[in-house]
User: Which sequence fits this backbone?
């Protein structure tokens, strides 16, 4: 039964809100209840007890508070473009204050003999700073009371502002909320946790996060709330793992049979790397336990994950089960299918490919053979998870490049058998530890941290567009040596004509520079049918064309060892992990490979950081951490689609330590009390139930 508390009160009933503002709060910030508002935290605080001197203004990204006299005030311009410029003077110098709106009100308010407190964010313009639209208040008239020395800043939107809910407006209604909830804020952590980590109470934390009395208590409030947020995520994930290992039975793959042995002894063309052996062992151990495996296999691009997956798929077959491998795109699944077919040549094992473009006749055969068990191995795209696709006895599912699969799609795989199949999720984009802990905290992790031998590190260089002729020259030299080249254009949205235009223009200029019959060029982009794409791809794979001009459709997994040059056009428009993925397309053979990043002459700071990172390292982990710092985690993992983790206060980059504490605390706790049945842990169970009320059924998610 749902107990309704004061916190569930609809937001319109808060003093100062009402139906109109409530409507906008709901639409713009998803604030429906008192509780939602309470958890809408400031993103910054400004110390209003500190005053700066005019000469100390040195930055246009922070707020400054200055005390001084207005020594000049005049209007500039006419009509709509009119502005008011005032000069504030303190004993160190002067600075201009500028207003574009509310001019009359300011003119009436300011008197020349009085001292004022000015507060605002400076702007650097024409070689000096000014402060646009500062708050201004006569000294002594200030309404700021001591409790508000640290002024909270809330994110707001245009629509909210138009109804008076700018940062200050939000702060005002927050202030109305405080007396309502005070005394009702129950503790959600156990005394033991609170004492061990010396946390402040939940009530103190929630009040001080909005209205901090001082810097020190603000920090403690923030630490407490961050810990709490991360702790309950960890608790959920780890508990889920416990439930799965206890309740969900798994197929037991007890034997290593002829399929595996034949492959290993007759067909495997090279030695496994040490890392491949290590992770294979880890996976093998899981598969023999009688528990369902949920494992994440991490390994940089080209580290040989496919092979590891294949070996385990063969073991599934040896034990009488079916196995499938799912990839996010048609091209990738075709490629997996081809390389798996090649690995299995002469072994008399049935493998088929199922994608959106599989012909009806073939599809029918696949459906039949899956049901009667004649088809042990299947490779494909999303087509694999359609309801029509039914297996006789699915034992193992491998998901490649999983970040492209939505959570719901993965959950579907679970239901393909009465006993859920083992699940191996492979990802080529290394995930920073903090992210892995948060998003895959319930999965076991294996890491391939070694590349197959003989690979030469890829040389990465940056060229500006104006140096294109040099690049053409270099391309010709490489082609003369028998190598092949990718030229990749960014793609923001497949349907955007603009993207295609860039690609077409590029194709034309390359065609002019590399004319037939001496050269041949392939082109692949999202507007082609998959048949056309495949045709173009195949010409390049077979070496009939030397240059492949493409959009990012070739991003993942394509494996052509003879391709040694990756040219990325408008490289500044790509994210770091995407650049890293693209670069991973070359360097797959024994020859020296190159990645050339082309950019326009002017780069934003972020763009420049990304190029610099790419040029300086090929280490996927360093790159993904830099990516996390530059872009934030939301982008990185496509979490919007999963909607699972929506951090309100913790920051996965800055709060790694707190996350670590949260995880160890949760682990320790569950070791003693795996189901939180002990009396003292009842508060935790209650809070978990409350938090997970509206969430998707996590246990169904791999
Ligand atoms: P990933 O999927 O991890 O990006 P792949 O599985 O596609 O990497 O492997 C990249 C290439 O390296 C493939 O051509 C594969 O056949 C080859 N390869 C895999 N393991 C080894 C190994 N131990 N020694 C040599 N080459 C290997
Ligand atoms: Mg791969």
Assistant:
């Amino acid at each position: 039964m749902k107990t309704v508390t004061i916190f569930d009160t609809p937001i319109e009933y808060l003093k100062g809100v009402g139906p109109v503002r409530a409507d906008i709060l709901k639409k713009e910030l998803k604030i429906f209840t008192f509780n939602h508002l309470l958890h809408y935290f400031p993103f910054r605080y400004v110390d209003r007890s500190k005053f700066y001197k005019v000469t100390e203004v040195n930055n246009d990204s922070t707020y400054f508070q200055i005390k001084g006299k207005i020594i000049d005030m005049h209007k500039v311009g006419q009509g709509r473009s009119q502005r008011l410029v005032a000069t504030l003077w303190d004993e160190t110098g002067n600075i201009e204050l500028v207003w574009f709106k509310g001019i009359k009100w300011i003119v009436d308010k300011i008197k020349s003999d009085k001292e004022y407190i000015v507060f605002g964010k400076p702007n650097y313009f024409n070689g000096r700073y000014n402060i646009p639209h500062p708050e201004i208040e006569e000294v002594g008239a200030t309404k700021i009371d001591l409790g508000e020395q640290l002024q909270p800043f809330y994110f707001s939107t245009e629509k909210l502002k138009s109804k008076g809910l700018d940062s200050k407006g939000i702060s005002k209604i927050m202030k109305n909320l405080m007396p309502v909830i005070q005394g009702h804020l129950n503790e959600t952590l156990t005394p033991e946790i609170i004492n061990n980590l010396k946390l402040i109470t939940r009530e103190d934390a929630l009040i001080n996060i909005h209205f901090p009395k001082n810097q020190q208590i603000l920090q403690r409030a923030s630490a407490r709330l961050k810990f709490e947020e991360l702790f309950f995520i960890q608790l959920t994930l780890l508990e889920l793992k416990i439930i799965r290992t206890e309740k969900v039975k798994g197929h037991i793959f007890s034997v290593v049979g002829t399929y595996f042995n034949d492959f290993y002894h007759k067909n495997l063309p090279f030695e496994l790397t040490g890392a491949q052996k290590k992770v294979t062992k880890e996976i093998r151990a899981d598969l023999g336990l009688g528990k369902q495996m949920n494992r994440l296999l991490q390994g940089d691009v080209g580290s040989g994950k496919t092979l590891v997956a294949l070996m385990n798929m063969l073991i599934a077959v040896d034990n009488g089960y079916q196995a499938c491998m799912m990839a996010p795109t048609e091209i990738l699944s075709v490629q997996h299918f081809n390389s798996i077919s090649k690995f299995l040549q002469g072994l008399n094992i049935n493998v088929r490919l199922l994608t959106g473009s599989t012909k009806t006749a073939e599809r029918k055969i696949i459906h039949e053979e899956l049901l009667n068990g004649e088809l042990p191995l299947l490779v494909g795209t999303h087509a694999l998870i359609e309801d029509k696709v039914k297996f006789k006895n699915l034992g193992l599912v491998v998901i490649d490049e999983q970040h492209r699969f939505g959570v719901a799609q993965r959950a579907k795989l679970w239901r393909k058998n009465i006993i859920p199949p083992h699940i191996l999720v492979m990802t080529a984009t290394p995930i920073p530890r903090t992210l892995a802990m948060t998003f895959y905290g319930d999965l076991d992790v294996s890491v391939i941290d070694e590349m197959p031998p003989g690979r030469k590190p890829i040389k990465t260089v940056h060229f500006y567009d104006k140096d294109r002729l040099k690049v053409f020259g270099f391309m010709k030299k490489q082609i003369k040596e028998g190598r092949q080249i990718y030229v990749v254009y960014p793609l923001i949205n497949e349907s955007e004509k603009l993207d295609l235009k860039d690609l077409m223009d590029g194709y034309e200029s390359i065609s002019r520079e590399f004319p037939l019959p001496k050269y041949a060029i392939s082109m692949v982009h999202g507007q082609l049918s998959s048949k056309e794409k495949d045709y173009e791809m195949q010409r390049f794979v077979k070496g009939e064309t030397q240059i492949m001009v493409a959009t990012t459709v070739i991003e993942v997994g394509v494996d052509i060892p003879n391709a040694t040059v990756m040219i990325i056009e408008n490289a500044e428009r790509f994210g770091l992990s995407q650049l890293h993925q693209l670069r991973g397309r070359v360097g797959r053979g024994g020859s020296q490979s190159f990645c050339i990043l082309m950019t326009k002459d002017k780069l934003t700071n972020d763009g420049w950081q990304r190029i610099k990172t790419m040029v300086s390292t090929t280490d996927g982990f360093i790159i993904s951490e830099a990516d996390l710092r530059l872009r934030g985690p939301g982008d990185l993992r496509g979490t919007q689609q999963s909607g699972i983790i929506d951090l309100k206060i913790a920051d996965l980059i800055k709060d790694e330590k707190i996350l670590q504490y949260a995880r160890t605390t949760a682990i320790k706790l569950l070791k003693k009390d795996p189901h939180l049945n002990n009396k003292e842990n009842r508060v935790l169970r209650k809070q978990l139930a409350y938090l997970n009320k509206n969430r998707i059924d996590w246990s169904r998610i791999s």
Observations:
- The mean pLDDT is 87.
- Residues 305-306, 400, 428, 557 surround magnesium ion (ligand 2) (CB under 6 Å).
- The chain has four domains: 1-48+155-182, 50-147, 258-448, 459-617.
